[in-house]
TrEMBL record:
GO molecular function terms attached to this record: carbohydrate derivative binding; glutamine-fructose-6-phosphate transaminase (isomerizing) activity
Source species, domain of life: Bacteria
Keyword Repeat: yes
Species the sequence originates in: Cellulomonas fimi (strain ATCC 484 / DSM 20113 / JCM 1341 / CCUG 24087 / LMG 16345 / NBRC 15513 / NCIMB 8980 / NCTC 7547 / NRS-133)
Domain SIS: start-end pairs: 41-181, 214-359
Chemical reaction(s) catalysed: D-fructose 6-phosphate + L-glutamine = D-glucosamine 6-phosphate + L-glutamate
Name this protein carries in UniProt: Glutamine--fructose-6-phosphate aminotransferase [isomerizing]
Biological role stated in the UniProt entry: Catalyzes the first step in hexosamine metabolism, converting fructose-6P into glucosamine-6P using glutamine as a nitrogen source.
Subcellular location: Cytoplasm
Gene name in the database record: glmS
Binding partners and assembly: Homodimer.
Enzyme class: transferase
Keywords: Aminotransferase, Cytoplasm, Glutamine amidotransferase, Repeat, Transferase
Residue window of the full protein shown: 250 to 618 of 618
């Protein structure tokens, strides 16, 4: 069943190019326009949406954080991302013009389900992005956009995460197309970039030998930090979550810009820090800001493990290790940058002799509040 892999998680990491490709499949017409006719929410309602609230837990919430950057950029609609259990127990400002997007691999997470009910009681429309057919959350939502990652067995989410991010891109592009924020050829151009991602994810997997080696050497590590900016920030948080849940190592993800507001005090000689570097071809000074963050922590003795785009030579002088990933548009890059972090956590936990697929204290779907 594991197809020759040591764990389901390792297999599911390798399934990721398919998970993304299958989630994209069949969602465009012959003219290349997006058709999400499964999203049974009236087009007039979607045109009138003035706010999107993403509700989810854990890894699914990090997919929501990535979605925020993409949807706000493409659609100019404000997007909030909230942990479902926090949303549920405050008095959220949502109404008929709010689109609530509930993201869940299992479709059974009780916290997310309760938040869906709460949102609908306030009159919001709820669109579920779910991987498991026939599960409860889609049944209780106004519409569902399925991710096609296939069954995910390992407790740690990997391929569902990439499929969730992909589905939110489709949603964002669909809304942009519907509301006229983007011309059809602009949407088609992003879709073409998106269709190129499965091959690039495959390349990251093919190159993962070095990150596996480093992970095995680091089996005794006590703490690892993860830094990122922009879409690299949720990637950093996801990298930290994977390491906590699989390897029981203290790990934290930070927005790189926060360093000088506190976390830099944690840096002492030898502290391993993963840094997710944005594309140097991307926006403004984003890249150079992250490079100076690497310099700052390196100067204080951090061991810098850098994830950067092919051709980015600027990071080399300050990196103890660089894991290069193929070039991609900034907003789509999380689909690549997170893969070495998944591999790192999986390999390190395996090296520690831990049960990668069934980490202690965790369940695959959390059906209690
Ligand atoms: O099934 P869901 O996507 O609703 O689950 C949400 C979280 O419980 C889940 O992502 C959890 O954080 C994973 N163990 C992360 O690897």
């Amino acid at each position: 069943e594991k197809g020759g892999f040591a764990s389901f998680m390792d297999k599911e990491i390798h399934d990721q190019p398919h998970a993304v490709a299958d989630t994209l499949l069949g969602r465009t017409d012959v003219r290349g326009q997006l058709v999400l006719d499964e999203v049974r929410i009236d087009e007039s309602v979607l045109r009138a949406v003035d706010k999107i609230v993403v509700i989810a837990c854990g890894t699914a919430a990090y997919a929501g954080h990535v979605a925020k950057y993409a949807i706000e950029h493409w659609c100019r609609i404000p997007v909030e991302v909230e942990l479902a259990h926090e949303f549920r127990y405050r008095d959220p400002v949502v109404d008929e013009q709010t689109l609530v997007v509930a993201i869940s691999q299992s479709g059974e997470t009780m916290d997310t389900l309760m938040a869906v009910r709460h949102a609908r009681e306030q009159g919001a429309k709820v669109l579920a992005i779910v991987n498991t057919h026939g599960s409860t959350i889609p049944r209780e939502s106004d519409a569902v956009l399925y991710t096609h990652a296939g069954p995910e067995i390992a407790v740690a989410s990997t391929k569902a995460f990439l499929a969730q991010i992909t589905a939110t891109y489709l949603l964002g592009l669909y809304l942009a197309q519907l509301r006229g924020n983007k011309f059809p050829d602009e949407v088609a151009a992003v879709l073409a970039e998106l269709r190129a991602m499965p091959d690039k994810i495959q390349q990251v997997i093919d190159r993962s030998g070095r990150v596996r080696e480093i992970a095995r050497w680091m089996a005794d590590t006590q703490s690892v930090l993860f830094l990122g900016r922009h879409v690299g920030f949720p990637v950093a948080m996801e990298g930290a979550l994977k390491l906590k849940e699989l390897a029981y190592i203290h790990a934290e993800g930070f927005a790189a810009g926060e360093l000088k507001h506190g976390p830099i005090a944690l840096i002492e000689p030898g502290q391993p820090v993963f840094v997710v570097v944005p594309s140097p071809r991307g926006r403004d000074s984003l890249h150079s800001k992250v490079v100076s963050n690497i310099q700052e922590i390196r100067a204080r003795g951090a061991r810098t493990l850098v994830i950067a785009e092919d051709g980015d030579e600027a990071v080399r002088p300050f990196a103890d290790e660089v894991f290069y990933v193929p070039q991609a548009p900034t907003l789509l890059a999380p689909l690549l940058a997170v893969v070495p972090l998944q591999v790192f956590a999986c390999e390190l936990a395996t090296a520690k002799g831990l049960d990668v697929d069934q980490p202690r204290n965790l369940a695959k779907s959390v059906t209690v509040e």
